[in-house]
Amino acid sequence: MSRAALVNPSRRRFLGHSGAGLVLALSGSTVALAQSAKPAEAQAFKPSAFISISPEGVVTLISKQPEIGQGIKTSLPMVIAEELSVNWRDVKIVQGDLDPIYGSQGAGGSTSTPTNYQDFLRLGGTARTLLVQAAAQRWGVPVADCQARDSFVHHRPTGRKLGYGELASLAATLPLPDAASVQLKDPKDYQLLGQRIGGVDNAGLVRGAPLFGIDVKLPGMLYAVYEKCPAFGGKVLSANLAAVKALPGVRDAFVIEGTSNLNGLMPGVAIVAETTWAALSARKQLRVQWDEGAVATQSWDGFAAQAAALRGKPGASSLRRDGDVEQALRASGAKVVEASYSYPFISHASMEPQNCTAWWKPESASLELWAPTQNPASGQNLVANTLNIPKEKISLHITRSGGGFGRRLSSDFIVEAAAIAQRVAAPVKLCWSREDDLRHDHFRPGGFHHLRGAVDAQGRVSAWHNHFVTFANRVQREGQSVLQPGSGGSLSGDEFPGRWLPNILLEQTALECGVPMGPWRAPGSCVFAWVFHSFIDELAHAAGRDPLEMRLELLGDRDIMPPSSERGQPYHAGRMRAVLLEVAAKSGWGKKKFPRGQGQGMAFHFSHRGYIAEVAEVTVSKSGQLKVDRVVVVSDIGRQIVNLSGAENQVEGSVLDGLGTLMHAQLDLQRGRIVQGNLGEYPLLRMHESPTRVDVHFLRSDHPVTGLGEPALPPLAPAVCNAIFAATGHRVRQLPLSLSDLSWS
Amino acid sequence: MSQFRLHINGEVRQVDVAPDTPLLWVLRDSLDLAGTKYGCGVGACGACTVHLNGVPTRSCMTPVATVGLKKVLTIEGLDAQARHPLQQAWVELDVPQCGYCQAGQIMTAAALLKENPKPSDADIDGAMSGNLCRCATYLRIRAGIHRAAEIAAVPVKSPVSRKTKPQAKEGV
């Protein structure tokens, strides 16, 4: 939302965002009240779609973003509450439904904080200004003598005070202040921001309150399962529908033809029953003849062989070419390192499987949805486009999500529920089984990197060549058939150390596949950081240099490295040097002597506007058992931490997620389908494998406040792998770690 | 379909379901006790953990016909005021991220604390290794169990102590 739209004095209104429908949508608030209500009557103060203060003093704030465990339902309302000078105890948070009045409502890309922070400060500050004006008017005193604090306006000269509830009716009649008269606080006076504040749903969570999508229950609701072809994109030829329909508790069973959109409504068979168990039991009796299609010939081993054959060959496209890599590799005194790195397809495996409750109402030709989604507007769009329902006829309630990690940016499960609901005269909850969830994820793309690099006679990195082999789907775009790499499966020519080296060649080749792919926590970064910081470590060791010293040299002396094109982003190398030096200091880098089997490793990465450096300390037993003893994390995510508890939780979680993924995460593709079916075959990190200690530090810099759902994850894997090398001399070039024998003698 | 009388959270509840229905789905679909969560259906994640006669049990693998007269305790019945030391500690230390697994974590931890009121880190890791947390809040779960053990030993009214944070944190 633009600043101009937020405060719009000409309309005497301040708004949630810019957009055509907005003024109408807000017509129930301040001005309407001013015209219709007598000031003496108790009225709620609703200066914007996000804030409402009742005459009883209850401050209701809307959380517009989906809560997926990143803590946004607590942290963004804190931003409003800070400038509103309201006591957090008086605040009630309500999850907003999908509504254009709130502006963008996606939870992805760690963008919720940076895109809303300043506007939400202004929102709170404007509402506070009105409350102060109302108090001054009530007392007949100058505004300058009044101050808002702790849900009251205080009159300094006399010590009188009025609660926000007492002021609500009068404040509701006041015209909006112009932008200049809204004074935002000096951050040093913050009462709430930067404190440790517990999640607003914690009390409900610990008593088992039904907060999640899977917990939705409506009168007369039915339960659905949906079986898709195990091989991606396969179509239904026939199914024993009559037999399934005759099973106990089954209300209906039918084929959904679906579309060819791998991230949309895939073909399948729906079973609708009176209970979840009746649906699951009936599914065991379901027999489907599939036309598996061309994808059934695809396998991970086949792709790996194709990727191996590309080693030493030119890439299909060149992403960056600076200087002359070949000449630098051949230069006298140069030490050359060649290595190939690879990582598999992996799943998001959120604990709450994908689900959605849908209610088709034929009488109004409208659809009501309840979805644990990161991307509600996209879900609404997909349903509208796939099922030809006008968008305005589709309402969507955002429920709490049992984990996201990028999976719920896709809306396949929403359109499936909607398609099933259209055939059922009742609300219906579609719930995927764990097997559905693992085998029909939109996977993080696997990848292969063929690297060559050199250090010159002075030990400086003099050449870097990466041929990245990635995965792509064939899609139709503007009438053309094109190969579109999976989310996170495209390398930017600016990705570090692009921009810094005199001789660098980055190339990319995409392998066409029929595997659906999607964003996975810190897309691209989650694997690129591992490859590049492992290889930097290889070059440092080839040069006989300290990995910290070489990294600082690579980052150079300049502060800001501009992007190579308008679409890129600047990289503040100065901020990265600062977090790197700080993590070295906090971890005692280079100061400790480790016995064989123990070691330290480091890495840094810039992603999602955050600058993060990490040092891992590991112990590897002689038999090859890894234990991460400590991880030190230093983050620069701008001038203010919003919720310190939430921020620490995100960093700890990112570190542990990075470790579990490094250790275990792997899906195998055979005959066009995923082999692993449940969490026994797809292990997630368990408590006893967790690091003993994670030290979380934040460096404040005078830069905009940014998000923390993702950027602390990418540096973990290379930091641990570099520590494993320091401990054992074993260089990990293939993920996950379970494929490597780390034993030593 | 068959009739079953179940002892759940101190009450007798009657349900009419197929005998092979896992207790998990009886709780969730028939009895509106949705705090117990589905995660895997094969006993691999622990999100569905309830107590049967005090023993932590995977309700997704427990056919209702096998429950009989055993006393079933779910997260909703753990404490009448939702003030079990673990529930207090979870709120005090802000343990959850997405929170989906936490009912199962708390139920497993509650059984641990009953048997071992002052568990070590190793005891906790051993007891809790069957409960997955995809957000990986394990450090806070561990700290939360230690804190709950403290609360249980010396009941406190106002949970304000920050001494038991997982480790010392740098201010901002």
List the helices and strands and how they pair.
The complex is a heterodimer of chains A (745) and B (172).
Chain A: H1 3-6, E1 7-8, E2 13-14, H2 22-25, H3 30-36, E3 45-48, E4 51-53, E5 59-63, H4 72-84, E6 91-95, H5 112-139, E7 146-149, E8 152-155, E9 160-163, H6 164-171, H7 202-206, E10 222-228, E11 235-239, H8 241-245, E12 250-256, E13 268-273, H9 276-285, E14 288-291, H10 300-309, E15 317-322, H11 325-330, E16 335-343, E17 355-361, E18 366-371, H12 376-387, E19 394-398, H13 412-421, E20 428-431, H14 434-439, E21 447-455, E22 461-477, E23 480-485, E24 504-512, H15 525-543, H16 547-555, E25 560-561, E26 571-572, H17 573-587, E27 598-607, E28 610-620, E29 626-636, H18 644-664, E30 669-670, E31 673-674, E32 693-698, H19 716-728
Parallel strand pairs in A: 5-6, 10-20, 18-19, 22-24, 29-32
Antiparallel strand pairs in A: 1-2, 3-4, 4-5, 7-8, 8-9, 10-13, 11-14, 12-13, 15-24, 16-21, 17-18, 17-20, 21-22, 22-23, 25-26, 27-28, 28-29, 30-31
Helix pairs in contact in A: 4-5, 5-6, 12-13, 15-19
Chain B: E1 2-8, E2 11-17, H1 23-30, E3 49-52, E4 55-58, E5 71-73, H2 85-92, H3 102-115, H4 121-128, H5 138-153
Helix pairs in contact in B: 2-5
Radius of gyration of CA atoms of chain A, rounded to a whole number: 28 Å
Largest sheet strand order of chain B: 2-1-5-3-4
Q: What is the chain-wise order of helices and strands of chain B?
A: EEHEEEHHHH
Number of strands of chain A: 32
Widest sheet of chain A: strand order? 12-13-10-20-17-18-19
Structural class of chain A: alpha+beta
The CATH homologous superfamily of the largest domain in chain B is named Beta-grasp domain
Q: Based on DSSP secondary structure assignment, what is the total number of beta strands of chain B?
A: 5
Number of contiguous helices of chain A: 19
User: What would CATH call the architecture of the largest domain in chain B?
Assistant: Roll
Total DSSP helices of chain B: 5
Anisotropy-based shape of chain B: globular
Q: Per CATH, what is the topology of the largest domain in chain B?
A: Ubiquitin-like (UB roll)
- Largest sheet report of chain B: 5 strands, mixed
Just give the CATH class of the largest domain in chain B.
Alpha Beta
Major beta sheet summary of chain A? 7 strands, mixed
